[in-house]
Amino acid sequence: MMLWNHAEHTLEDNQRFCWLRAAEWVNWPLFVSQPFIPPLLFFVRPRYILVTLFIVGWIWSTVRASIVNFRLAEIGCLVVMLKWPSALICAVVFLCQHEYGFAALSAFWPALAMILSSFVPPGAVGVFERKIVSQMLRVPESELFGEPYRQGWANYVGYYLTPLVFAAPVCGAAYLWSRLFTSEITVPPVAVAPADEAMKRVEVIARNVDWDSAIAENSKAIRLAPTNADAYSKRGIAYGNMGDYGKAIVDLTKAIRLAPKDAKLYYGRGWAYDEMGDRDKALADFTEAIRLDPECDLAFFRRGFIYLRKRDWGNAHADWSEAVRLDPKNSQAYWGRGIANSRLLNSEEAIADYTEAIRLDPKFAAAYGGRGTEYASLARCNHGDGQPENGNWDKAIADYTAAIRLDPQDADVRRERGDAYQEKGELDNAATDYDDAIRLAPESAEAYFGRGDVFRRKEHFDRAITDYTQAIRLDPKCAQAYYCRGVASARTGNCEQAIADYHDAVRISGFVASIIGTADPKLSKTLADAFCQRGGYRFAARDLGDAIADYDEAIKLAPGYADANYFRGMAYREKGEVDKAIADFTEAIRLDPGCAKAYCNRGVTYGRLRYVDKALVDFFEAIRLDPKCGPAYYWRGVAYRLRGFESKAKTDFQRAKDLGFKPERD
To answer: Do residues 351 and 373 touch, judged by C-beta distance below 8 A?
Structure first.
């Protein structure tokens, strides 16, 4: 069924409809392309689109008279109704991307299409109109109009010469423009490619640079002048921006042989080596560029990232400081120096650098993320030192939130914000962030581990074990995941699994510690906890020698760990080495003066040695620290009985019984 029913319209309406469809048929491919060209601008260079339309138009001009089709003409009219919505939507998107030239081209494309039609040979609209009327009425053309209209050779000459008259001056102007304004190719802004956590690849490639043309033009220049170092340099840069770093290095090496004192050439080749992953050669070229030109800020900037990958924080910091001095507006140099300061444990300086990077570029997501990490580090340090965290967790969360707003796909920042929420005790918010991090990065062991911690703290031990197991699958060397799974397994009563996990935590932590060669406090505490937990199970099994060995290792790893000294004291006492037990209880009290159980058990040990007075002093202190310490009341009662104070002894025995303490032996 036709969309246009001629029987429902007047003669004038039908004539107008057929004439319009005939006029559109003259340049029908260009006509129906109007809704599709603006979206194509996102993917194809405008010059290629124009050339394609020009070629298709000329080919169309040779066949259009023989393939007139009323149905296609009718459908084309409906399709073109989308041209203005398409043009305006694409223009808005280009404006949001600050592509103002493309925005204008997109917005005015329907009007430009009419101008472009003048570059295609015109056609006899009347001839097409007769064919369309014939097909619409389904009546042979000869019955309606008699003999078909035939064009003479003069018409064809006129049709094909007219667009050439228009095209010649336009093409000439375009050629002059390209020669005058695009012949010079300079070293492009180079992408920063740091290879550490929380750092991302940023590529800046100018859309108006035709690297293919640059290669062709400079190749021609090299053929004419084989010793032209500038031509080799420009062609090498063009190859590099197209991703062919091997050819870029070859050309830049030739340029260096011709001009060995040009610092920019060494910088360009270093950039190519860096993109290929050859850090040592890149480092050598950047160093040579700096030697030849001490003011080459980009060489300092790129070399800083190479030092960062090599874990040479000091040299990285020095290079970025120099880059900042040479270009105080380089936000990425401040960001890089912030990373170096962070690695050097200069949190305040790192925060200042990240803040300056944000001031220079308020949309710098990585700088917000880096500053958030430093605030979190300060909060952890203050907590470890027993100091208030001074709102640093809130500052960290605010920065992580800003980074997520600017880059919603950054899974690492969401995970770190989850860690911050967990430290603040906001477990639901933490769980939401871990869920999002896992959705964005399903292979993130850290995100599963963090969510497992949330479930463990909520006492959802089965779900915690599931997440810890997934973290271990993704990172089999994560000692903390084994340790925490052991804790959760112990809480569910699965002691065998708990012991196996503590064994693995000890094994892996010891291996990792030997590899990194430095004392990581968090790792050391995890390892010490694992030794203590395993020691506890060995103590319960009356394997006192091995239990003491585990506590020894825990104390070596964490010398200030009061619980390790306390538990070793218990093992020594059970083994009969009471002097060592008293020494350990005393050390535990020194490390943690509020440890009531250490006072109580030291008192019990004194009692076994018949040092009743010393035992009483310890029992009194244990009760002062913990008025609900049932064992302290019971053993104080024993001490009273030894001193002959039977009434006081009975009072303490009753108090211990009321508190639920039942002694295994007297």
So the answer is: no
